[in-house]
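Why does residue order matter? Because the sequence determines the fold. Keep that principle in mind as you read this record.
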Amino acid sequence: MLIYLDNCMFNRPFDDQSALRVRIETEAKLHIQDLIKQQELRLVWSYILAYENAQNPFFERRFAIEQWAQLADICLYQSDEVLQIAKDLALKGIRTKDALHAACAIVAKAEYFLTTDDKLLNKLTGDERIIAMNPADFIKVLDNDN
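Structure:
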């Protein structure tokens, strides 16, 4: 199964863990990471992930996240197709970087786009090109497949 994790997914383990929701999403993300490492899930990496991660002011976090590029099965670069899909998504009110993430997932033909951003999830709901999901909900999908 091919999946795309947006930047907030990669950063979730570094967030303040005092809120239950954040802890649950972190545990789900860490489980997903393990499945990627075990090659049970396939990962898409993109130029927009690399760009956003490069902006992270915390070296340790930046370094830890950039290591995931090496585990990716697909690495997507900017293309006319990505930019056109991102423009279409922006018409739904999706912010530019988020639209680029979703467009990369769509072009890569990822089965799932995982994010912890509720606003983005709401705006992607109903888009027939990609299934957008919170990591905790994705774990439920994985459990149902087994």
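The chain has a mean pLDDT of 96.
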